[in-house]
Amino acid sequence: MCGFLQSPDNGNLISGLRLCNSVAQYRCDYGYKLNGSTRRRCQSNGTWTGNEPVCELKSCQDPGTPWRGSKKGNLQVGQTLHFSCDQCYRLRGSNTMTCQSDLEWTGRRPTCTAVQCSWLRHPTNGRIVAYSRYCGREQTEFICFPGYQLRGTRRITCQSDGSWSAASPTCVGKF
């Protein structure tokens, strides 16, 4: 006769017989995986074959953190990861992903792309001398040709929402 076996935490033991050659089987609760022997046999010397198993939380493979972004949450079954992007970057893909029982993620792996503003044209009777249509980069600067003066803002920047900080200026003739 073999000693008593215990059900693993977050699992159960099927068959409680302790007679010679009887078999005990282990199963884990939903969201857990068995690590160790799934079946153990009572031997004639009064010991059980195999190792006492443990039930460990199942986890999905880490989908990674987007470049220029962040990730919060954990990888366990039933849990959700939350993704966001740094300022001046826009999230493409899913902002959340949930680890399913088949160890696959819901949603599409996210990426962060740089925010761009619309193209600008040189003003009539002037030009752009410094230009960046990407958020967080250098300012775009306008000048007017001799005999014309700038009406509006000389320097504008691309903002994190994809809009310009001001309208493009114009160059008007001096009177």
Automatic annotation (TrEMBL):
Disulfide bonds join 28-55, 85-112, 144-171. Transmembrane segments: none annotated. Residues 1-57, 58-114, 115-173 form the Sushi domain. Pfam families: Sushi. PROSITE patterns: SUSHI. InterPro entries: Compl-Cell_Adhes-Reg (IPR050350), Sushi/SCR/CCP_sf (IPR035976), Sushi_SCR_CCP_dom (IPR000436). Signal peptide: none annotated. Keywords: Disulfide bond, Glycoprotein, Repeat, Sushi. PANTHER family: COMPLEMENT COMPONENT-RELATED SUSHI DOMAIN-CONTAINING, LOCOMOTION-RELATED PROTEIN HIKARU GENKI. This is Sushi domain-containing protein. It comes from Paramuricea clavata. The lineage of its organism: Eukaryota, Metazoa, Cnidaria, Anthozoa, Octocorallia.
